[in-house]
Amino acid sequence: MKLRHSLAAIFTFLLLATFLTACKKEGGASGNEILIGEYASINGQNATFGRSSHNGTVLAIDEINTGGGILGKQIKLMSEDDNSKQEEATSAVQKLINHDKVVALLGEVASSRSRAGGQIAQQAKIPMISPASTNEEVTRIGDYIFRICFIDPFQGEALANFSMKTLHATRAAILLDTKQDYSIGLANSFRETMRKNGGAIVSEQAYSSGDKDFRAALTSIRASNPDVIFIPGYYSEVSLIVRQARELGITCPLVGGDGWDSSELTKGAEKEFNGTYFSNHFSTEDPDPAVQNFIKKYKAKYSNDPDAMSALGYDAANILADAIKRAGSTDAKKLRDAIAATKDFAGVTGSITINAERNALKPLTILQIVDGKYHFAQRISASGEPMTEFKPMSAPAPAK
Ligand code: PHE
User: Fold this and answer.
1) 237 and 171 within one domain
2) How many CB atoms lie within 10 A of CB 327?
3) Do 173 and 205 meet the contact criterion of CB atoms below 8 Å apart?
4) By the number of CB atoms within 10 A of the CB, which of 8, 71, 158, 217 ranks highest?
């Protein structure tokens, strides 16, 4: 009996394996499914980045499938967790392309990991859309690599202008993460803009992702007496940096970029974060009905507010689906051309047009952190002009 059972099991397994291999040969679009790959940091150092973008992506794909799918097929999302590690981003993309035979890729949030995965996608000529990677180099990898967010030369310039014109700072210090392409690129454009406009960088200090003690760097910065400190890092370290800065008696404004966005950033240090600002792709306070409707749907599904990565993950998945529809095919070249032709797509992070460099030109939002909440303070147009007046909330001074 037992033998017969296991023989039957082996036979069924072989049948299934043959069937699956036959399906796979068709390039991820066989039967009634279209396979899309996603690589994200679901665990590790920047887990909220991956979880948020994944949740936004899943929300979009569920809606598309409920609405009948695309090209008469359902979308199947194949997700790989890269554990916030660059090497794992590479192997995740290799697996998705070579083993799962996905027709396109969504990912990553962090620029260094998008650069790692993007190399593989470009070599295989499989279109990739990064929802959130802002480092200039990401889309320079090649003609199959796209993004739907603004880039760091724009973000860094906007933050330097904000520091100088709005916060009236002329002496800035920079504390950057030399392990992240994102941080290096953002520091470069901030520094250049400050200097170009007559400001000075009075101190520049570095750390590495994963560091926990920033007191030595902050002590040198304090001695340089800056008007503002620019911290182009990720929330995991910024969360500690801000606490330690306040501990050391630093009370000047602290400014950062989109890498600050996380529900984890201010946890347990809500008061210490008063007097800080960061730029982002999205604000939950945006009265636009499209944004508010997205927030409602997201909250209903996940019981928490979306952040920028949730919104960008949602937009990236919808843009990819729209391109598949317009291409009328999942052929890689046709799909690539359709993504490149994306024009005036109404996303929840704004209107998205892919330009000749495969980037998106979009406005940016400056958020002010008040008692742990992110308040809309100002919107800056894609050409760097203020679109709204700067409206800070009168916040209590940062706690030490
Ligand atoms: N822009 C960051 C990067 O390129 C990632 C990021 C996007 C983080 C949006 C938070 C919000 O690495």
Assistant:
1) yes
2) 20
3) yes
4) 158
Counting from 1 in the atom list of ligand 1, the atom nearest the Cα of 312 is 9
Average the pLDDT over 18-34 and give the result: 57
- Please state the pTM of the whole predicted model: 0.92
**Same domain, residue pair 342 and 300:** yes
Q: Is 315 within the bounds of a domain?
A: yes
**Does some domain include residue 16?**
no
Overall domain count for the chain: 2
- Per-residue pLDDT tens digits for 139-191: 999 999 999 999 999 999 999 999 999 999 999 999 999 999 999 999 999 99
Q: What is the 20 CA–ligand 1 centroid distance (Å)?
A: 36
Query: How does pLDDT run across 262-296, given as a tens digit for each residue?
Result: 999 999 999 999 999 999 999 999 999 999 999 99
Asked if residues 93 and 141 have their Cβ atoms less than 8 Å apart, the reply is no
Same domain for 227 and 373, yes or no, is yes
Residues 6+ apart with CB under 8 A from 131: 53, 56, 57, 106, 107, 109, 147, 148, 149, 309, 312, 313, 315, 316
Substitution site in 82, 109, 133 for ligand 1 pocket (most atoms within 8 Å of beta carbon): 109
* 12: in domain: no
CATH number of the CATH domain containing 79:
3.40.50.2300
Within a domain: residue 398? no
